[in-house]
Amino acid sequence: MNKPVLEMKNISKRFGSVVALNEVDLEVYPGEIRGLIGENGSGKSTISSIAAGMQKANEGEMFFKGNRWEPASMIDALNKGIGMVVQESGTIGGISVAENMFLAELGSFKNKFGLVDKNKLERKADEALKSVGIAGISGRDAMGRLDFQDRKLVEIAKVIMKNPDILIIDETSTALSHDGRQIMYSLIRKMRNDGKSVIFISHDLDEIMEVCDTLTVLRDGNIIRTFEKEEFEADAIRSSMIGRELKGDYYRADTECTSLDEVVLSAQSLNYKDNLKDVSLELHRGEIVGVGGLASSGMHDLGEALFGALKLDSGHVICGSGKEILSPHNAMGQKIGYVSKDRDQKSLCLDASIKDNIAIAGMNIFKNKINLVTSSGEKRYVKKQVDELKIKCSDMDQAVGQLSGGNKQKVVFGKWIGCGSEILILDCPTRGVDIGVKQAMYQLMVKLKNEGKAILMISEELPELIGMSDRVLIMKDGEITREFKRSSTLSEGDIISYMI
Amino acid sequence: MNKKLTKVIGLIMAGAMTVMAGCGNSAPAAQGSADNAASAQGAETTTQPSGKTKKIGVLVADVSGEEALGFRNYYEKYIQENYDVTFDYTDALASAEDEKAAIEKFASKGYDAVISLSSSDRAQQIETCEQYGLYYAIASGVLDDEQYEKYKGYEHFVCQIGPSNATEFEAGKAMGEYFKNQGVKKVALYGAFIPNPMHVFRAAGILTGLGCTYGGANDMEAIVGQIFQDQGIDLSKVSGDVELVAYLQGYGDTTTDELGAAIQKAPEAFLSVGMATTFFAQTLSQENIPFADIDSFTAMNSQSMESGSLKYLAGKYSSSIGPVFALVSNAIDGNLIRNDEGNAVSLNQGYLVATDKATFDEYFVNDNGDSPIYSKETLDSIIGSQVTYQDVKSLVESK
Amino acid sequence: MSTPKRIVNALAMPVVTLVVLQTLCLLNGQSVISNMKSFDNFIVYTAIVMITTMALSINLNSGRFDFSLGSMAGLSCIIGAKITYGILSGGNGSAPLMLCISLVAGVILGLISGLTYCTLRLPPIIVSLGVTLVYEGIMYTITGGKYVMSEVQNPSMSGLTGTWVYAALIIAAVLAFMIITFDKTAFGYDYNALKSGQKVAVATGINEVKNTLICYGISGGLMGIVGTLNAARNTTINGGQLNFGSIAIMFTAFLPMFIAGYIGRFTNEKIGFLLAAVCMSLLNSTFAVFSNSVNATMQSIINAVLLVVFLIYLNNNDLIKRLLKA
Amino acid sequence: MTDKRKTNIKQKLISLLPIAALLVLFAVFLVVVSINGYRLDMYLKIVFNEALVLAVVATGAIFIYTLGTFDISLGASTLFAATMGVMTYNKTQSLILMIVAIFAVGITASLLNSVLASVFHIPPFVTTVAMMSVLSALSAQIITSYGGALGGISIPSEVVKPFDNIGFKAMLLIAFFAICFFVFQFTKAGRRMKFVGGNPICAELTGIKASKYTILAFVMAGIGIGLGAFLTLCYTPSVTTTTASSIGMNIFIAIVFGGMPISGGARSKIYAALIGGFSYILLNDILEIVIDSSAAYGITQVISAVFFLAVVYVTSMNYRTALLPR
């Protein structure tokens, strides 16, 4: 091949005492679609964000088109040829679409009085959106009014309109529907055809294998191996990601739909805004029910509704004892646990220690005879969870915010399992979790099922729904459109059409 | 880490700078007092009665009023220069707790006496001084009769010298009468810090002097009682030949608007029971409204008198607190003077009234600079181990 | 919402206030604003409230709580007064000179405050506590804890607030400045971006420190104007406000800030500040009318109750709307 | 792993810094007092008395701060409770009833804040601003109405004299602190409050009813207010309109000085107010003795503010972010 368009040499990055990147070299060539894959905390987002000017490396040097590459900021990098669509939301809700697209460079829209020319700004934004092929969004729109997917598309347009030589896409496809993905894929292909490069980061092995030409695996801040297209093979890639062979099963081993008869939780005609329309379901003891659909299908609201966290317009959530669930407080009383999709905001207190986070739900268990919370009881209780779930930490007083995504999720699990939850509502339990932890989670779910616990798993990833659930409920526009029973023949293709 | 270090050093530097800035700022003051000390030495080398410098703490609540500044100048500039004494002024004391803590600090610093210009809780002050064995004297305002009766026998309670409540009433009454005789028909009244008793008595006096009744009453006791009850003056309860068109009191966010409202009612005179020069002189002279005040003979008031806007001033002179010092000084030296009944001295001081520049200047100039009314020569006549109650009484009553 | 409807909605608040208060005053046989003098006062007070509220909102909108507003107003105008007096000795042109110097001093004090915040990276509320104490301390040291009087008592100063004209000009100038700066310039756009999406905005390349410093500078400058207006109005500046004596001024800005937020739904937020200030000023004029029967104690209780009542309305209004929508 | 452990040790050391600051200040205080030849025993008593009420009220307030909100009406509430206590005694001549009244009023005033906040969804901070105005206005009205010529209301000093000794007060302080410590550390409620402060959404999704704990926190603060008011009366048996006025804002300083983040949450510490309160008073007394000039109150305040910021800066060294904190 010809000369690389981007060369990164000996890049190191440390966050405090944590080494995120350890003397990494990466080269990207023109016309190449390069995949980056690795477990959480492997450094794939870090290295791409350094290239895109979002943060600076502690050591190492970069060359872009043969010149030294030292971007001052993301917008600087973008203007000079490297643009990135970031993993978390890269847009701001309170301002207009056009302002978002030209964020940090409104200085270039000054009129002769030195003021920002709003009309020109919006015109430019509209042009850019149109050229990328996004219809139905105007530069004048308030960003906050757009849904998650449209926001993501605006972000992509913002990068593309600068006509970058390298486009970096970090974990974006999970936010996009089928249509959105098609727009993105066509943009990626167009980039390749124009002789430009794409760095594509994803957790989704299937997707990344399909989209990319080459695939680089990172682990613990090091580059492990780069696969060429013809070498792509799922198991090999997986094991280089986690650094060992995956032992045992990944998903459930059995293909039978099994559960006990006892209904432990039932929803009766739930209605909530436009997001839930007459939703009814039953969850049995020893059953894993999967709920799938697009992000906007209302399934995430369903999770909160079952936990009593939404003020329903109508309908009832009744648990096995016959009691109605009206609040999270009620739900906990009925031994229901809820793991939110939005882990950092809703399931954890990041400033607090692992101990505090796990113990908070279990005080009724380890309190002493006179109802007091003692340090020794607490430590014993938390240690059990930390050990059983193999949470990696310096000690249980470490702040949860310092942990990796997978370990954070283990803490959330520990919190709910420790307090003896009989029913678990898991919303995207493996989101942002690396493969090793994912497998552990799946095995844990199997164990819990075998213990007779009931699990409702909401997920945007079809493979895990198919792989884990006794029944899969598919939601679309706030309604349950279809139910699938577990079977060895169930495939994504069978399901997708009911989602979109 | 290095960055953090730099920041810490920066902070320390900033701290050091402030200290230095502070020193820079206090340096001129220190120099000033050194000058004073030097000139004092030049002028006075003879009288150094006892070997030890007396240390007197002064409790103050008001650090900015004209009267308070005058008092302070007299003690810190004049008395401190001429006698072997240091005065330690507190910060503006906001509450009874602050007063007590201040007295305790004076005590632990080994001070000899406390002179009080602060009145959050006088009873508490007396008790605390008694507890710590500090001589105590009141230099502004007086205790009410009941309190005086209770504390007059306290061993360390030296004296209270100042206008009695009846004197305050008379001062107000004289002002009211003056304007009534001038033929004024519409007046505005500023009640200053009613329900401060001093101000209540003055306000009652003004009403009486104007020939007005308040809630039907025309004697001091009844009017004062009602004003305390009403927390101010209720215009609807005032009746008489002279019309009270506006009333305001206190000083805060709304005062300026209240003053504006009062001015709109076109009063022919603005009568104040205190502090008017500080707060309103500018606006009133702008609007050409003559005003009257009960305050003291200070430069600021002199200006107002000169510009013609201040028509009437009943004032204390700044050195009126001289006898208090004399008695405290005597007590420290072992001559604790008691009145005829053997109790703490309680003497009444009257007001001086100026209605023209000449009179004002007479009092003002007299009380300024090197020869205050209570000058060293005068005070020396009541300082010493042989001085008696009668000496003090006759001197104070003569001034 | 259509434009006429917006205008009606925006004006509803001040108009209703005027009608209610005028009725109250008429029952008492007077008018809220009965003559030129009270009109002058009304406009001056409107200017003070509007500018204070703006100064508070600039930082509070971005989640930065600033207790130091009052101390900035006090210190900047003391500096202004001292320097002006040193140059002109109270002569002609004292007021405009003092206004300018206080404005500059305010900007500098604001910048120092902002710089302290950006350097220490402590929560702004804590920094503002420290800054307040420092400024109060300096104020006390300069003045010896006394009222500053002779420096601000001259015909030029009393002329500044003696007529509505200058206050109206100041209102217009500040309003224009604020609208242009916050709605039309790149700084303003960046400010809005930082306000609602700090993390993204910073990652994209907006210079947060610079933007923040400008905010503090503007806020300080505005307080310099407020300080001068207050000095002219009260004919004194209180130099002895130790131990957080200066913070009260910010509490008076809360009610107008919430009112402005409400009006701002229908019109430009800055116009909202003006209209809210008009409401507050009307209330103040009413207090002046009733000054003989409503004392300062009652006034502060009334103000507090209005604040709570308005917030109850505001917050539960939202709730009601949300319920109706569903 | 060892690196992480190192960081943890460093963090623990830094979290001990406020205690170290207290000890250093205390040592300096001892030196300064003895150098000047002042009576140490008396000066210690003064410091204790000055810091006592602040520490007690602030310790109660820790619960409110832990929840991530703050209350600026505490000084006014203390004044109001003391006022009502004196009124009760003067009506009934009963010490018991007076104490009951003080605590009842303190708790009620505080509760009212939380109820307004949780029932009407008003930010607790704003209700406390309103509450501050109302309570201080009411107290002023009562005190001046009944205080008349004395300018304040009081109970006979003999009534509280038996309680005005260090031993008794220290016992009360220790007892109250022990109760707070117990609630904070050993009850479910205490743990839950910390969690609510750390992440209210997560707390709700863990079945914790925030409003219940808001009310509880304000009750604890109310007890602190009551005790503070009682101790104020023990020290000076009279109440004036400015009683307890200095503690309102000093509570902020004390809590932050004691090493607790103002945003509360997981890093809340029950001992912060005690340590911070005593440190701050010691600091001010040291400066007052060292800079022994009545013109220097301003400078003293400036230095103590700079010192305050420096200590807070060093204590929070570990929690820097790339973004400016809000």
Written description of the protein model:
- The complex is a heterotetramer of chains A (500), B (399), C (326) and D (326).
- With 500 residues, chain A is of the alpha/beta class.
- Helix content of chain A is 34%, strand content 24%.
- Chain A contains 18 helices and 19 strands.
- In chain A, the strands form four sheets. In chain A, strands 6-7-8-3-9-10 form a six-stranded mixed beta sheet, sandwiched between helices.
- The mean pLDDT of chain A is 87.
- Chain B has a six-stranded parallel beta sheet with strand order 2-1-3-4-5-13, with helices on both faces. Chain B has a six-stranded mixed beta sheet with strand order 9-6-10-11-12-14, sandwiched between helices. In chain B, strands 7-8 form a two-stranded antiparallel ribbon.
- In chain B, helix 5 (145-151) links the parallel strand 4 and strand 5 (157-162).
- In chain B, helix 7 (197-209) packs across helix 8 (220-230), helix 10 runs parallel beside helix 11 (299-307) and helix 11 runs antiparallel to helix 13.
- Chain B is globular and about 60 Å long.
- Chain B starts with a helix and ends with a helix.
- Residues 9-49 of chain B have low confidence and may be disordered.
- Chain C is built from 14 helices and two strands.
- Chain C has helices at residues 3-27, 36-60, 69-88, 94-120, 124-143, 155-162, 164-184, 186-196, 198-204, 208-234, 248-251, 254-263, 269-289, 296-325; strands at residues 147-148, 237-238.
- In chain C, helix 3 (69-88) runs parallel beside helix 5 (124-143), helix 4 (94-120) crosses helix 5 and helix 4 (94-120) runs antiparallel to helix 10.
- In chain C, 62% of the residues are buried.
- Chain D is 75% helix and 1% strand.
- Chain D contains 13 helices and two strands; from the N terminus they run αααααβαααααβααα.
- Chain D has helices at 2-35, 40-66, 74-92, 95-120, 124-147, 157-160, 166-186, 188-198, 200-204, 210-235, 247-257, 272-290, 297-315; strands at residues 153-154, 238-239.
- In chain D, strands 1-2 form a two-stranded antiparallel ribbon.
- In chain D, helix 3 packs antiparallel against helix 4 and helix 4 runs antiparallel to helix 5 (124-147).
- Chains in contact: A-C, A-D, B-C, B-D, C-D.
- The interface between C and D is large, with 55 and 51 residues.
Structural domain count of chain A: 2
Q: Would you tell me the structural class of the helices and strands of chain B?
A: alpha/beta
Determine the CATH superfamily of the largest domain in chain B: Response regulator
Largest protein interface, residues of each chain = C-D, 55 and 51 residues
